[in-house]
Amino acid sequence: MTGISLVIVGGAVVFALRLRHPLKRMRERATMDPLTGLANRSELMRRGGHLVAGARSRGDRIMVTMLDLDGFKGINDEHGHDAGDRVLIGVAMALRSAIREGDVVARLGGDEFVTVQVLRRRADAVTVAERVRSDVERDLQTRVAVAASVGVTMGVAEALDGETDLKALVTRADTALIHGKQRAKGHVYDGNSCPTEHVSPSD
């Protein structure tokens, strides 16, 4: 290879390396919530959809939770949006710690978060959801000073036999959450039973 050829090849390699990092950042921005670093809605549907489909092929069980913060508006009103952002970041960190590697956690916007989780063979979806809910609430109230009065309410939906429609699971969990919050905040509500049924063991 001639000296000129080496220079051309070397220049191409340098250009490719320089281009790779901006492209990686662009891909991350397209799939990530910019505040929390969690998956955004489109990435939730992509990764979560793969998780649901893979679980079905392996015979695993899947649950989806929809999480909403109680008292979050008061944080923004009293302490400002910077404080609200700290609360949302705190929730994201707590959720990452509360779920297993390979599961999916996303922020849909505002104070709405979603998880897609593979259930262990004998695990109960509502029990797992309550553990996540209480862990996130405790971690948030402990680590973020302005969040001492912020609570967490959650709706949960477990995939039925053969069910692979992630959007339907998210909708079912969200419906349970909405109806549940009309009764009492700070609990888990089961989207696989009556959406208004109060199922949390923490009464």
Automatic annotation (TrEMBL):
PROSITE patterns: GGDEF. It comes from the Bacteria. Signal peptide: none annotated. Residues 60-193 form the GGDEF domain. SUPFAM superfamilies: Nucleotide cyclase. InterPro entries: Diguanylate_Cyclase, GGDEF_dom, Nucleotide_cyclase, Rev_trsase/Diguanyl_cyclase. This is GGDEF domain-containing protein. It comes from Demequina litorisediminis. The lineage of its organism: Bacteria, Bacillati, Actinomycetota, Actinomycetes, Micrococcales.
